[in-house]
Amino acid sequence: MDRIKAILDSYAAKVTGHLGVGFMDFQTGEACFLNPDDRFPSASTFKVPVLTTLMARSEAGEIDLDSLYTTQPGDIAPGSGVLATLTPGVTMRIRDYAMLMMIVSDNTATDILCNLVGLDNVAAKMAELGLTNTRAGLTCKDLIFTLCGIPLDTSMEEARVIFDTDSFTKDDTLYTDFSIPNDYASPRDMITLFSLIYKKGILSPAACQTMLDIMEKCQTNSRMPYNMPKDFDGKVIHKTGTLENVACDCGVIEHNGKSFALALYYNAHTATEDEKRILHFNDYLLADLTREIFDAVHGA
Questions:
Q1: Cβ neighbours of residue 3 closer than 8 Å, sequence gap 6 or more
Q2: Buried-most residue among 20, 56, 68, 210 (CB within 10 A)?
Q3: pLDDT tens digits, residue range 61-79?
Q4: Contact in structure between 26 and 274 (CB atoms under 8 Å)
Q5: Helix or strand or coil: residue 106?
Q6: Which ranges of the chain does DSSP label H, i.e. alpha helix?
């Protein structure tokens, strides 16, 4: 664990932004953290608590994952994903919206599920688990509108014009003020959540395995999976999150009979302008950090 700590310390020293890391070795039970209980913008990693709550409500018989839902014009959310580019009227099973939410970080699918499960229920589930530094308080649409200073009652048609003409003023409050409605997480909380899912200590083993199977299919792979060695034949089960100058990735890496959880949060909003200008710095930082931790676990 001394080697892991040295890696975390070296990365903390080399960046000017706010870096948080959680690590847990599932074979030894040892853990190591950098800024473990600091709150970070969670970006799309907040979709893991949404998925967890969806599965909990499904197990309680409150939501049928095989029920059909047809997208409506009011469902459309800006940002990542595919549904916002399609004509409203697409009909899919609820489980398929969950798949889109997790593997391509589809914001429209996410907001449909947020409305279905209820953000209050997400908050209650996280509180039940003792995750005091995790909050899913805003839908994707509300988060993006707030960050861009766009009134929440603005229609997507009006918002598209605003986005296309760059006629908005950014509101950076959500990057640093976690006392207001916001989406945030901490490295320790996300390590706890992924540990519960991976060890099947939350919900039924089948529900936990469903979540793991979905997250194994994640297609946003420029961080944790990016620098794996050529002989890597394991699994990277994860969920990324991205905002301007914010990069996150959380999950579990399996290889050669070993497995460990990682929670990576980087808020470059607090970094120097020189650091922000480096192309894809956030991706490279988290990919390199993951590889060094991977090598330490496997004795490379």
A1: 296
A2: 20
A3: 999 999 999 999 999 999 9
A4: no
A5: coil
A6: 2-14, 47-59, 94-103, 107-117, 119-128, 140-147, 156-164, 187-198, 205-216, 273-277, 281-297
Query: Using an 8 Å Cβ cutoff, are 163 and 117 in contact?
Result: no
Express each pLDDT in 10-29 by its tens digit. 999 999 999 999 999 999 99
pTM of the model: 0.96
Angle, helix 187-198 to helix 47-59, in steps of 10 degrees: 40
Q: What is the pLDDT of residue 206?
A: 97
Per-domain boundaries in the chain: 2-297
User: Which fold, 2-297?
Assistant: Beta-lactamase (3.40.710)
Cα–Cα distance measured from residue 241 to residue 262, given in angstroms and rounded to the nearest whole number? 14
The residue assigned the tokens 């995790």 is 134
Output phi, psi for 98, to 5 deg. Answer: -65, -40
- DSSP annotation string for 211-251: HHHHHHT----SSTTTT--TT--SEEEEEEEEETTEEEEEE
Q: How many residues does the chain have?
A: 300
Calculate ∠ Cα 41-208-219, nearest 5°. Answer: 55
